[in-house]
């Protein structure tokens, strides 16, 4: 809005100034006037409520009383409102609130905007979303009465800026969940604070909402939480601390145990009685896939009773033993210490249950699997976190925590892996393990063995070990027999088939990936739909013998940051199938090609002659000659003879399913989806990158139109010091060149890499992102004082700093340089430097950008990770600035909510655990410090 228009608007009767004055008058009346007592106010609040017995407030109360239990009339008749009333919504204004059985909705009161006008604007100024705002009860996890305090009324989206005003009243907060606009799988907490002068009114709403919440019976009330402090980069405890407040807000009781050694959680799970375990609604693992596997085995090994996997008639591993050992009876075969001595897995080394213990477990209440009630949960903190990515769509601890609290549920297939080995009595005895994601032999086993030697490296150990094992290029002689399964089509739901027919998908491109409420996974209840072929018939088995580089059995797609589509892109969470991937011996270059396809989004790693992919329910494996080891969910299992079978939906997980593809988040989703108009594209940009790009563009446009000369913007210290031309300290950063190819390229960097950074690693961290720019500018200014490093404009270096930080934050993102070379994101600055060199651009600005970018990354990420202090923490004034700016959102903002909106999540998302009066300082501690997304990248 132009300045004249602003003036006109300020003094118009509908203006914000008018409104602010009105609110101020109302507030002053509210604060100063006395009056008679209110009949329904309780004693404690009586005096305060009495002060509010002004004509305006009486009118409001009258209106509210009239409206309670009144049918809205214009809404759908099937859902009559339970309550309606006008409230003040913090940072929005007076709203008409409606509670229905399925949720809360509100509309701005007519006083803010005439009814006939578009509610999204008032005199052309956007004030709220076009749509009425609402939250479903299924998305609400807590509601609390928070007594007396400030409620901000804001006309514009910039709270506190120009027109914001606050009044004191009774308040209640509704805590719920909101989905990120750019990535629906990413969830964040959101808080709505409603205020009213009548305490009883607030309490009545709280009670009503609470009674609706009590109908959500699938939500957990009591959880057992195990934390692996050493998972991933060693931040298991910090990950839990970041989500713990929402568990207490949701009144979910948690018993938290931090493990002291590998195998601790397994032992605890294996020895806890069913009676004790049944006290909990589920068990949560805070760690990686390996830790989850440990807990899974602890629970299932002692409780899951099922026949061992079948074998081909001529290859039955049990033939040398009594024929009645065909059932896995947890009380008989738990862990055989005689055959596990040589096992590398710490879980097996430490876990021995004697028979008495095992039998005592069964004396408790019955607990069998599949189990309708008991669920597992996983809060990601590991190095790979494939299970979380496949079941929630993102690798985000907060999303996982919210899905746990809201009681989301998906069923998960589990593979039972049985190693057959001779015991000291020379009998062949079974040794059972369970896996939720993957069991792999050869390359996969070797990588995990090798990587364990370099655990100190953190997640990087997989890259190093992978390269070493790849260069070794070992193959192993083995025989694999798998049972022929009916084609996937027998299991495809009608809807899925219709969709496929509609899009005319060819056989080769048939890929129905698993999503939330997946058609394929939900075809039936727990039992597999497939008609099981008779395992005793030899013709139902297929044998493959030869030398294999690797053998993999995937239960789920195993998507992760290194393999964005996973090994088997169309594997499902609960379709009752295993995907057997046999990679026969081949030249190293071919294998590299397969691995490259695996690492590519949309790659076809299974589309090679030397790769066999079979869907099956069970298979056996026998090695001959030199042996590798099995990698079972990232844990080592030595087995010369092994059989495996899948159990459909054996366990339930607190997760809602992968709503969108993870790859879209890691790579292309970081960019806005295709916009139909330039305006839509521009509006979709996140605030910081948008503002910087706009300022740079306008600055260059001004020069182009000869409104001023670039000279007036340049950094001349002499002019700054002698003539106090202070603006030069700022303007030199906003001129990134006259309109030219170089200018376009720099603008492109801001709009591509700057936007990706803001939507990815700096998502919900607007203040941190703004600080990155300030840090860059503050570091470049003294550098520019050194004569041979000085340049007129340091904007180019600041832009290049974006490239460098991007390359560090998203090092595994694949980038394509003009269709010529494909590189990892890590190398982007150096590739750009090479391009600068070739086309003759000066290298100094880019080198300075790299230096400053590295300094920033070192001080904010590397040094704190290595145990150092976070000396480059985003200063308080930046948080304040961002709050006042009113754009974006900082999840751990230390600024109290005097003025808070969040752009990313509907403008009213607050720090978890916070309230507008910060009543509970203990909550603040959890969120103090750097707001990096834990384990996220
Ligand atoms: N307190 C502990 N000290 C040492 N090791 C532990 C402890 N608690 C659990 N472990 C073991 O650490 C191993 C790895 O843990 P986890 O899976 O959490 O991390 P990760 O290997 O980094 O992640 P991912 O499995 O996703 O690659 C597991 O095998 C688990 O048994």
UniProtKB/TrEMBL annotation:
Transmembrane stretches, start-end: 729-751, 771-804, 847-866
GO MF assignments: ceramide kinase activity
Single biological process term from Gene Ontology: ceramide metabolic process
UniProt-listed PROSITE patterns: DAGK
Cell compartments where the protein resides: Membrane
Membrane topology according to the record: Multi-pass membrane protein
Keyword Transmembrane: yes
DAGKc domain residues: 218-421
Keywords of the record: Membrane, Transmembrane, Transmembrane helix
Record function comment: May be involved in the degradation process of specific misfolded endoplasmic reticulum (ER) luminal proteins.
Protein name as it appears in the record: DAGKc domain-containing protein
């Amino acid at each position: 809005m132009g300045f004249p228009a602003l003036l006109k608007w300020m003094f118009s009767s509908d203006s914000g100034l008018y409104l602010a004055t009105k609110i101020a008058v109302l507030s002053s009346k509210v604060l100063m006037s006395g009056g008679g007592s209110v009949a329904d106010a309780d004693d404690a609040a009586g005096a305060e409520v009495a002060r509010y017995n002004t004509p305006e407030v009486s009118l409001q109360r009258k209106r509210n009383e009239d409206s309670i239990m009144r049918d809205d009339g214009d809404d759908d008749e099937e859902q009559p409102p339970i309550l309606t009333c006008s409230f003040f919504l913090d940072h929005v204004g007076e709203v008409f609130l409606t509670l229905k059985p399925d949720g809360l909705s509100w509309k701005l009161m007519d006083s803010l905007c005439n009814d006939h006008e578009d509610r999204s604007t008032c005199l052309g100024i956007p004030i709220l979303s076009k749509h009425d705002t609402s939250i479903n009860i299924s998305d609400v996890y807590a509601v609390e009465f928070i007594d007396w305090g400030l409620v901000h009324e804001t006309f514009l989206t910039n709270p506190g800026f120009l027109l914001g005003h606050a009044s004191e009243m009774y308040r209640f907060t509704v805590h719920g969940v909101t989905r990120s606009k750019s990535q629906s799988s990413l969830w964040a907490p959101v808080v709505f604070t409603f205020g009213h002068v009548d305490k009883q009114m607030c309490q009545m709403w709280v009670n009503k909402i609470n009674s609706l919440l009590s109908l959500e019976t699938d939500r957990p009330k009591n959880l057992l939480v195990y934390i692996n402090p050493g998972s991933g980069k060693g931040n298991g405890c910090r990950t839990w601390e970041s989500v713990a407040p929402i568990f207490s807000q949701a009144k979910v009781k948690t018993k938290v145990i931090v493990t002291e050694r590998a195998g601790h959680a397994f032992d605890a799970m294996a020895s806890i009685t069913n009676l004790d375990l049944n006290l909990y609604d589920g068990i949560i693992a805070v760690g990686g896939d390996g830790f989850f596997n440990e807990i899974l085995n602890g629970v299932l090994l002692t409780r899951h009773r099922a026949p061992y996997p079948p074998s081909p008639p001529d290859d039955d591993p049990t033939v040398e033993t009594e024929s009645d050992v065909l059932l896995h009876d947890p009380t008989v075969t738990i862990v055989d210490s005689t055959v596990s001595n040589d096992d590398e897995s710490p879980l097996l080394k430490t876990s021995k249950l004697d028979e008495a213990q095992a039998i005592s477990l069964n004396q408790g209440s019955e607990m069998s699997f599949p189990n309708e009630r008991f669920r597992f949960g996983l809060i990601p903190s590991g190095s790979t976190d494939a299970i979380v990515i496949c079941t929630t769509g993102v690798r985000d601890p907060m999303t996982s925590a919210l899905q746990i609290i809201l009681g989301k549920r998906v069923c998960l297939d589990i593979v039972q892996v049985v190693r057959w080995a001779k015991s000291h009595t020379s009998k062949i005895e079974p040794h059972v393990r369970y896996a939720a994601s993957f069991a792999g032999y050869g390359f996969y086993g070797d990588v995990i063995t090798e990587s364990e030697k370099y655990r100190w490296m953190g997640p990087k150990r997989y890259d190093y070990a992978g390269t070493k094992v790849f260069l070794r290029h070992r193959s192993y002689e083995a025989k694999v027999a798998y049972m022929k399964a009916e084609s996937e089509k027998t299991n495809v739901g009608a809807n899925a088939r219709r969709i496929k027919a509609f899009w005319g998908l060819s056989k080769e491109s048939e890929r129905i990936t698993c999503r939330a409420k997946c058609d394929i996974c939900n075809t039936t209840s727990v039992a597999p739909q497939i008609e099981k072929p008779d395992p005793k018939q030899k013709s139902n088995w297929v044998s493959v013998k030869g030398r294999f580089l690797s053998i993999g059995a995937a239960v789920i797609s195993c998507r992760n940051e290194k393999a964005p589509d996973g090994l088997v892109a169309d594997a499902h969470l609960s379709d009752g199938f295993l995907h057997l991937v046999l990679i026969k011996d081949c030249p190293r270059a071919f294998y590299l090609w397969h691995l490259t396809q695996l690492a590519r989004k949309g790659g076809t790693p299974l589309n090679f002659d030397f790769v066999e992919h079979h869907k099956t329910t069970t298979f056996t494996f026998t090695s001959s000659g030199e042996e590798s080891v099995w990698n079972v969910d990232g844990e080592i299992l030595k087995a010369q003879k092994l059989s495996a079978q899948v159990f459909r939906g054996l366990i339930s997980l607190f997760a809602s399913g992968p709503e969108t593809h993870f790859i879209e988040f890691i790579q292309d989703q970081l960019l806005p989806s295709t916009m139909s108009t330039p305006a839509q594209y521009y509006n979709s940009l996140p605030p910081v990158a948008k503002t910087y790009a706009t300022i740079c563009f306008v600055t260059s446009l001004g020069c182009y139109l000869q409104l001023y000369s670039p000279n007036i913007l340049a950094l001349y210290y002499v002019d700054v010091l002698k003539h106090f031309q202070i603006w030069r300290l700022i303007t030199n950063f906003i001129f990134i060149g006259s309109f030219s190819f170089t200018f376009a390229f720099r603008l492109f960097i801001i709009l591509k890499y700057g936007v990706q950074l803001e939507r990815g690693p700096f998502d919900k961290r607007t203040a941190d992102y703004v600080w990155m720019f300030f840090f860059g500018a503050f570091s470049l200014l003294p550098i520019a004082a050194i004569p041979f490093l000085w340049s007129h404009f340091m904007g180019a270096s600041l832009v290049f700093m974006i490239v460098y930080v991007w390359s560090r934050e998203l090092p595994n993102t694949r980038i394509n340089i003009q269709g010529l070379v494909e590189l990892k994101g890590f190398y982007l600055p150096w590739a750009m430097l090479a391009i600068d060199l070739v086309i003759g651009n000066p290298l100094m600005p880019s080198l300075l950008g790299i230096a400053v970018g590295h300094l920033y990354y070192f001080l904010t990420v590397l040094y704190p990770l290595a145990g150092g202090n976070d000396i480059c923490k985003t200063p308080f004034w930046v948080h304040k600035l961002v709050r006042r700016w009113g754009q974006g959102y900082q999840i751990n903002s230390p600024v109290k909510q005097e003025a808070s909106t969040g752009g990313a999540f509907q403008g009213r998302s607050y720090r978890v655990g916070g309230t507008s009066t910060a009543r509970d300082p203990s909550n603040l501690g959890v969120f103090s410090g750097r707001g990096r997304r834990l384990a996220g990248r």
